[in-house]
Design a protein that fits this description.
Length: about 425
């Protein structure tokens, strides 16, 4: 590979790679090259990528992946929501085993969140192609659109479309960071609302969906294990909270009687960290995005809008936390004599991973000398939407320092390839069931 001084991802991946991991048709250098090629799409100088859902960059990344899929002998299609499906027929007809992830990113995201799952699923096919293995059942690779949610402040758009988990009302409410509707965004992308609706498929055509993903935490690193088992996926809820006060001149408006919604927002923000502690050990709430209007240095803010990300791996405590946050927003607004507008943008059902599937993943890990570590996923994944209809399973690959959604996001090539070996073994075992 040519050296790219601005983007040394390939060289960094190959630097400490253990070539003994190249066996059974799986090739580490192929994964390193493909991660590098994807990293050039939407590349930012600080080392990460910017590929929002339904952007030209996400579309370019999908086009590249489709090219690799076709070269591997897969039948490739794209639905009206931009989801890519690549299919390999098996010896027998029936429901397919599926794997995959996404290629969109958060702003200034890393190079592994999403792409690793897509390339892992594809590498299984590459290994079969090299070894002459023909699966017993059909196998599908799925690349979902707009998983991260950076486009609409509401993630998992592609898998919601595929499973029919998004309502007409939700579609009508979606607005992107430019204020464009879903219909307008789809038009720019090359699709339509009717085609988006038609993306819903019969999920019973899939027997099982399994996803490889970076851990986004430190449990595997602390345990010194390369790959772990996801025990459950937290269901995210995104609450849009808006405080509306009264604008005024910062110099001429007396402090008494001001209706400063940013002060109210600060009051609200300070209270948020306390609520999850009284709910459960796995509940979390985060405000990571806030907009101030009119955002002038000498203007008392008239409006503050923020997103509260609320999660738990169990639905009942997660929903109690939502209610508490809503109640707190209303209390704060009343205290500061301003208005509040609250809208629930996303509410995804948490998904437990079946014990039988966890045991089968553990069996695959044991074959490679890996002690099973069981980890609840605080992050949302497309597997959650599929998990409402079919069994799903997930593998985590070790993350350096637990960093994710950041250009410093890193998983060693050794760990990535080990994860692919485990995935391949698990899928081949599932083909026999």
């Amino acid at each position: 590979m040519p050296v790219d001084n601005d983007n040394p991802l390939y060289e960094d991946l190959m630097k400490d790679y253990d070539n003994s991991l190249d066996h059974s048709g799986i090739n580490g250098e192929r994964i390193a090259k493909r991660l590098f090629e994807l990293s050039k799409i939407g590349f930012v100088q600080i080392g990460g990528v910017k590929r929002p859902g339904f952007s030209n960059e996400e579309k370019e990344a999908k086009t590249l992946v489709k090219k690799w899929m076709a070269s591997a002998g897969l039948a490739v299609s794209e639905d009206g929501a931009g989801n890519i499906t690549a299919r390999l027929e098996g010896k027998n007809e029936g429901a397919a085993i599926a794997s995959g992830s996404h290629v969109d990113s958060v702003p200034n995201g890393g190079n592994f969140d999403g792409p690793l799952g897509v390339l892992s699923a594809l590498e299984v096919v590459e290994s079969w192609k090299e070894t002459g293995y023909i699966p017993e059942k059909p196998y599908e690779i799925i690349v979902f659109s707009d998983e991260e949610g950076s486009r609409f402040n509401s993630g998992l758009t592609g898998s919601q479309a595929m499973t029919g988990a998004i309502s007409e009302e939700e579609m009508a409410q979606l607005r992107d960071y430019n204020g464009e509707t879903l219909e307008q965004v789809l038009a720019h992308y090359g699709s339509t609302l009717d085609a988006f609706r038609a993306a819903k498929r019969d999920i019973s055509e899939l027997e099982l969906f399994v996803e490889v993903h970076i851990e986004q935490g430190k449990k595997l690193e602390k345990a010194n294990e390369p790959v772990g088992i996801v025990s459950g996926i937290a269901g995210p809820a995104w609450l849009e909270v808006e405080f509306v006060g009264e604008a005024g001149h910062a110099g001429n408006t007396p402090m008494i009687g001001r209706k400063d919604c940013l002060v109210a927002a600060a009051d609200f923000l300070q209270s948020i960290p306390e609520f999850p502690k009284g709910i459960s050990d796995t509940a979390v709430a985060t405000v990571g995005k806030m907009d101030v209007y009119p955002n002038g240095a000498n203007v008392i803010p008239e409006k503050v809008r923020m997103l509260v990300d609320i999660r738990d791996i169990k639905e009942e405590p997660r929903d109690r936390l939502i209610d508490q946050v809503i109640e707190q927003a209303e209390k704060v607004a009343a205290k500061h004599e301003i208005h509040s507008n609250i809208k629930l943008n996303t509410r995804i059902q948490p998904v437990p991973i079946a014990e039988d599937l966890q045991n089968r993943l553990a069996s695959s890990l044991n074959k490679f000398g890996i002690s099973p570590i069981y980890i609840p996923s605080g992050a949302g994944h497309d597997a959650m939407n599929l998990g409402r209809f079919i069994p799903v399973a997930m593998l985590f690959v070790r993350s350096k320092d637990g960093i994710s959604h950041n250009p410093k996001e890193w998983s060693s090539l050794n760990d990535c390839i080990t994860g692919i070996h485990v995935l391949k073994d698990f899928i081949e075992d599932a083909m026999k069931k």
